[in-house]
Amino acid sequence: MTKKVLSRTHFWQGNEACAEGAIAAGCRFYAGYPITPASEIFEHMALRLPQVGGLEVQMEDEMASLGAVIGASWTGAKAMTATSGPGFSLMQELIGHAFMIETPCVIVDVQRAGPSTGQATKCGQGDVMQTRWGTHGDYVSIVLAPNSVQELFDLTVRAFNLAEAFRTPVILLSDEIISHMHESLIVPPPEQIEVVDRKKPKPGDTKFFLLPDVAPMPSVGEGFNVAATGSTHDETGRRFTADQAVHERLIRTLVGKIMNNADKIVDYEAVNAESCDVGIVSYGCTSRAVYETVEMAEEKGIKVGFVRLKTIWPFPEKIVHDLAQNAKAVIVPELNMRELFYEVERAVHGTAPVFSLNKVGGGEMITPEELLVEVERKVK
């Protein structure tokens, strides 16, 4: 059988790195439907999963794909699917179901220009708010945003670990640029890769939901009498659809297990965040232009600080607020029409003015030069 972790330096496409990260994290089931620009994840998993004792299934659509992933997770498997904008929209009802029955799984959304079919081969960042608010009702999602091929491997592993640790769906929000670029990356030896396994029930356990600590999750066939229902339920899974107190306790538990642990979940890269002339908050492919902007600004005597979000949701409010403390302005570059801008503005809370730099369609990136022009305007 082929090695489960291909430990060495590779030159991979981002989507290949994502697939290998999933396998290294213990993923052994993938269900999906091909869609640009996520199809290479599907293709690579079809090659590799049978080599490591796993299974891939092509479903008839994206809803069925996530349904199969949820079912596989309840049999004890670590499971994943990947899609792009239109497919992600189709998944929303089942994403809500997965939140409600506390199902650990990973959903990869490789963003492209939308809405609808849009520009299927061009990059966009228009799914940021959908990953947080796409399904109905009250819940809190964990959303990770890589900006390199290395991070597509690393954050895929982390996505599985967070899914298992908090018994929740986790969304890996990539984009066409990051997923289709080729870069060198290092896959460490298996013993250096942290893998979190599922909390399992003990004989005699009857409570599998809504515990203050994350509840244990039984698998189908292990002999536990449990109902997994999307309706309002108590700790045992029994339906209580007319009881306000039960529903409020359920929702507060689902939200609380994420928000009460936000400090453990939130991750970011920060440079000069405690003292700068101008701050930049970025994520994904757009953040790659920021590094060169910092260098060019420094040559002109301007100190630029930045926060690059590895975790978009829960939103890292404190570091963004700190960035604005001594800055004359904060800039939010995005390949959309101000999706994260208002969240940054809320977190800054009037400490400094917040400005957007937006570009949509055509696969055109925001360049370091364009960012530098905005930086220079803000210090005049």
Topology summary:
Layout: E1 8-13, H1 14-24, E2 27-32, H2 39-48, E3 55-58, H3 62-74, E4 78-83, H4 85-90, H5 92-100, E5 105-111, H6 128-133, E6 142-144, H7 149-166, E7 169-175, H8 176-180, E8 182-187, H9 244-259, H10 262-265, E9 268-271, E10 278-282, H11 288-299, E11 304-309, E12 311-313, H12 317-324, E13 329-334, H13 341-348, E14 354-358, H14 368-379
Parallel strand pairs: 2-3, 2-4, 4-5, 5-7, 6-7, 10-11, 10-13, 13-14
Antiparallel strand pairs: 1-8, 6-12, 9-11
Helix pairs in contact: 1-2, 1-7, 3-5, 11-14
Task: Walk me through the structure.
Helices cover 36% and strands 19% of the residues. With 380 residues, the protein is α/β, with parallel strands linked by helices. It folds into two domains: 8-192, Thiamin diphosphate (ThDP)-binding fold, Pyr/PP domains (Rossmann fold), CATH 3.40.50; 268-379, Rossmann fold (3-Layer(aba) Sandwich). Helix 1 crosses helix 2 (39-48), helix 3 runs parallel beside helix 5 (92-100) and helix 11 crosses helix 14 (368-379). The relative contact order is 0.12.
Brief characterization of the structure:
By secondary structure, the chain is an alpha/beta fold.
Which structural class should the secondary elements be placed in?
A: alpha/beta
List the total number of helices.
Answer: 14
| Topology pattern, helix = H, strand = E | EHEHEHEHHEHEHEHEHHEEHEEHEHEH
What is the CA-atom radius of gyration, in angstroms? 21 Å
Query: Could you tell me the strand content as a percent range?
Result: 15-25%
CATH fold node name of the largest domain = Rossmann fold
